[in-house]
Amino acid sequence: MPDTPQTPLTPTDEAVLQEARRRSRRSFLVGGTAALAGLLGWRWLSTGSEADGLSGPLRTVLDANARVAGRYFSPTHLAPEFARSRARRPRANGSVGLDEELDPAAWRLRVTPAGGTIPREFTLAELQALPRVEMTTELKCIEGWSTIVTWAGVRFADFLARYPLASAAAPFVHLTTPDEAYFVGLDMASALHPQTLLCYEMNGQPLTAEHGAPLRLVTPVKYGIKQIKRLGHIRFPAQRPPDYWAARGYDWYAGL
């Protein structure tokens, strides 16, 4: 069968075809350049020396975000509080540091003074003798869920006012479980926030073991990863201390 003769392109058709080819080449170049830039950017972010369990460039980005959040932080900026009737039992996320059998009678909070080496021990009764503070705030998990909870305990600031164990030369707080398996680092300003509690009650009842009995940290200006359960030891280092989740790639500051 003979070939069907092709209809000659009109000047208009030829112009359209040339424009389509030009745009296709430009799209290819733009797309290729963007892909290359993305690849190079990812290689930059994912390579380099490691810092706190994350590549140096990525940790630098997170630290920059933390500095911005820190500039907006204020002790007068309070997390919202709610009616106690809205309080619910939160999920018992996380069991690191809770594996050992708890003996409430034998438990002690150990606090090593800034610049010191010998810890001082406190019973739960000594903490409960300090001014009691109750608040109903939102516990926010970095996974995306949140629950309104009523907490009660003593302000960390009131504890340090009664027992001056910190120092201006040590601007950080390091908190660990009794077995040291879970550990949290805080800047001193966050620790002294008026809503940061050494907490021993939840929704009107003593803490349960899965929620950190006999004592945990509560601070609604931080995500839940900072609110360590079964608090066992507090130290006041001069340098930024390690943090369990920061060592696994999360933001060290973890502020809201």
UniProtKB/TrEMBL annotation:
<dbReference type="InterPro" id="IPR000572">
    <property type="entry name" value="OxRdtase_Mopterin-bd_dom"/>
</dbReference>
<dbReference type="InterPro" id="IPR036374">
    <property type="entry name" value="OxRdtase_Mopterin-bd_sf"/>
</dbReference>
<feature type="domain" description="Oxidoreductase molybdopterin-binding">
    <location>
        <begin position="101"/>
        <end position="245"/>
    </location>
</feature>
<dbReference type="InterPro" id="IPR006311">
    <property type="entry name" value="TAT_signal"/>
</dbReference>
<protein>
    <submittedName>
        <fullName>Molybdopterin-binding oxidoreductase</fullName>
    </submittedName>
</protein>
<dbReference type="Pfam" id="PF00174">
    <property type="entry name" value="Oxidored_molyb"/>
</dbReference>
